[in-house]
Amino acid sequence: MSEADLPFHARARAAVSELGDDIDPSAFDVSFSLFRASTRLIHHLEAEVHRPLGHSIAGFRVMFVVWVHDELEQRRIATLSGVTRAAVSSTLTTLERDGLCERHRAADDRRQIVVRLTDSGRQRVEEAYRRQNEVEVAWLGEFTAADRTETTARLVRLLTASLPDAAAKPVAGHDHG
Fold first, then answer.
1. Which of 65, 108, 115, 170 has the largest CB neighbor count within 10 A?
2. CA torsion through residues 155, 157, 161, 164, sign
3. In contact, 125 and 87? CB cutoff 8 Å
4. Is residue 163 part of a domain?
């Protein structure tokens, strides 16, 4: 088998390994696989579930976190949904236009904007999640219950771990002063 025939992951692993002995190929394997798997799932959900229902995956994420909390401050939506504040604002404008959510000022702090779903919004997120769960079940069909539990536990460990500050490390050949 020639190098051109190697699967992309193996080629990428070989390329990063050539960067030097300070590269940890097993860390690459995990992060690269996680990135590719999440990207693949997100793209599939967007195309097969969310766009056909008339909203984006970002719209679903925003509606989902509001649905879980009944109503939520706009700034918390960004944190919980993993969507930037600017994207949340834009997404809420679209959802509000479509009659799926409402924004109002918080009673205890008029500076805060609180978001709640309309009845149509709640129905939409419930229908969307039912369809999304069908995809999740099919995608994870090869996983046993134990596999799912173990994978979830490991991913939660990653989600609760602090990310290293890459900006604090100097990059060879670049002057940060």
1. 115
2. negative
3. no
4. no
3-state SS, residue 72: strand
Q: By residue range, what is the domain housing residue 117?
A: 24-154
Residue 71 contacts residue 114 (beta carbons within 8 Å):
yes
Is 33 part of any domain? yes
Has residue 151 got a pLDDT over 70? yes
**Number of residues written out for the chain:** 177
Start-end of H helices in 21-110 = 25-45, 57-69, 74-81, 85-97
Is pTM beyond 0.90? Reply is no
Number of domains in the chain: 1
Q: Does the pLDDT of residue 68 top 70, yes or no?
A: yes
The answer as to whether 6 is a domain residue is: no
Tokens of 9: 């992951």
Structural contact between residues 95 and 55, judged by C-beta atoms closer than 8 angstroms: yes
User: What is the CATH number for 58?
Assistant: 1.10.10.10
Cβ-count burial of 153 within 10 angstroms (0-12 exposed, 13-18 middle, 19+ buried)? Answer: exposed
In this predicted structure, what is the pLDDT of residue 4? Answer: 59
